[in-house]
Specification:
Involved in the organization of the mitochondrial membranes and the global structure of the mitochondria. Also required for mitochondrial distribution and mobility as well as for the maintenance of mitochondrial DNA nucleoids structures. Keywords: Membrane, Mitochondrion, Mitochondrion inner membrane, Transit peptide, Transmembrane, Transmembrane helix. It is found in: Mitochondrion inner membrane. By secondary structure, the chain is mainly alpha-helical. The protein is built from one helix and no strands. The N and C termini lie far apart (about 100 Å).
């Protein structure tokens, strides 16, 4: 009877807002996951480098005893 298209317009705006919100949440989650992965890889590389520095020294000390 009184078809103005207002409900369709509101529905479209709500859908766009919800889709934007979901994409932002997923983006933030991906950024956090990649950040954690890169932090783990960096820590692993640092620990590996430290092991390579410390192990030869400990082997020389063992030979002295």
């Amino acid at each position: 009877m009184w078809e103005t298209g207002l409900m369709g317009e509101i529905s479209q705006k709500m859908y766009n807002a919800l889709a934007y919100h979901i994409s932002q949440v997923n983006f933030n989650r991906r950024v956090k996951a990649v950040s954690m992965w890169s932090l783990q890889m960096t820590a692993s590389a640092v620990l590996s480098a430290l092991r390579n520095l410390v192990d030869p020294v400990s082997m020389q000390i063992r030979d002295l005893y």
